[in-house]
Design a protein that fits this description.
18 strands, alpha+beta, 38% helix, five-stranded antiparallel sheet, 386 residues, five-stranded mixed sheet, globular
């Protein structure tokens, strides 16, 4: 355990997303660690039928359950809309697999969504000549979103698809529920304040050195279009944060509670009503300050990240969106990248709140109507096979 924590503490952090292309902020992950990859089978069809909030909830559930399973809550992860990527040290591998099996059973039972999960040992990927580097993007003090680079994730997915590596997990038969404490989705969809929400996925071509030369230039071009500041394009803004009661997602959140649904539903009703009253009327209680919490919601929003694919959900004007798509097409025509985008009027926020009074909360952002999922479908349709 000490070695695991020591490694994570040695990684330098950065608070300007442009540094995701700077290798000096990243450290190589030991080869005895493992990757866990999850995704929802048939997620594109599910979001097209209007189930995007359920897809996001299940996609975030694996992250939540694993963070709750380990008291330090420092496991590196990336949320991808309909699934996630997680990095597991060897001492947590067995428990992580058992925890995810519970999430798989819960997802199937509560939402009739099949969550696929596989464990891939990094040693298998490293033998193929690839590596995994880990960086820390600091949203605010104590809230880190890890960034993955080095080509290992793409190779891990390739090995699994070809049945050359990885162990696929299947749902666990036991009745134990996953611990999804902190997982919620009470806020109204975040309406675009500048015109629209643009979900962007970009995969650079070539070896790692060439890919990050491309990303470095591309990020500078994107930041210029967005007015010189990525954070200004965050969909979570003071004007977009709207809380109503009862929330439309009350039943979805209730399914994340342990025990019979009716008890979980009643518990969710009471807790969400109390939270609504405190936040709506700015009533501080104990160490909880509603005004401070709203500001933390903005700073702690996970709307941009990298895991061998650049992922961004941007609030931008129609003109900026057109400029971004034109830019991406230019890069694609040169053979530098493949990309997928999705436009929507709103973004969705799925919350992971361990402490609302101590600034220990993260908020996963996705484009409404299945932003990441549909952008990924577009990306996959034109990615080269090599």
């Amino acid at each position: 355990m000490a070695a695991y924590k020591d490694f994570l503490q040695k990684i330098p952090s950065f608070d300007d997303f442009i540094h995701v292309s700077d290798e000096s902020y990243f450290l190589p992950v030991p080869e005895d660690w493992s990757l866990i990859l999850t995704d929802i089978k048939g997620s594109t069809k599910a979001v097209q039928s209007g189930r995007y909030q359920e897809v996001n909830m299940v996609g975030a559930a694996g992250i939540t359950a694993l963070l709750n399973a380990f008291s330090d809550r420092e496991l590196p992860f990336v949320f991808g809309g309909d699934g996630a990527t997680l990095l597991i040290p060897p001492e947590h591998k067995k428990e992580a697999a058992n925890t995810l099996r519970r999430v798989q059973r819960w997802s199937q039972q509560e939402f009739n969504l099949e969550l696929r999960a596989s464990v891939v040992d990094l040693s298998d990927v490293y033998r193929e000549g690839h590596r995994l580097l880990l960086g820390k993007y600091q949203l605010s003090e104590g809230n880190i979103i890890y960034q993955f680079r080095g080509g290992a994730l793409k190779k891990a997915e390739e090995l699994m698809k070809k049945n050359l590596g990885g162990v696929a997990l299947s749902p666990q038969d036991e009745e134990a529920d996953p611990d999804l404490t902190g997982l919620s989705c009470r806020w109204e969809p975040l309406s675009a304040q500048k015109g629209l929400i643009l979900t962007v996925l970009v995969s650079a071509h070539g070896d790692e050195a060439r890919a990050f030369s491309i990303y470095s230039k591309l990020l500078e071009d994107l930041r210029r279009i967005l007015g010189g500041d990525f954070k200004g394009a965050c969909p979570t803004q003071k004007e977009s944060l709207v809380l109503k009661w009862p929330p439309k997602t009350l039943a979805i959140e209730a399914k994340a509670q342990p025990g019979p649904f009716i008890l979980g539903y009643l518990s969710t009703v009471v807790r969400s009503l109390c939270a609504y009253i405190l936040i709506r009327y700015n009533i501080p209680i104990g160490n909880f300050d509603p005004l401070r919490y709203r500001q933390e919601l903005i700073s702690n929003s996970d709307f941009q990240k990298y895991d061998d694919v650049l992922r961004m959900v941007l609030d931008c004007s129609q003109e900026q969106a057109t400029q971004i798509e034109t830019l991406l097409k230019r890069y694609e025509e040169r053979g530098d990248i493949s990309f997928g985008v999705h436009r929507s009027a709103q973004a969705l926020m799925t919350c992971l709140v361990f402490s609302s009074s101590e600034n220990r909360h993260l908020h996963f952002i996705d484009g409404a109507q299945g932003g990441y999922t549909l952008a990924a479908a577009s990306l996959k349709s034109k990615k080269p096979l090599a």
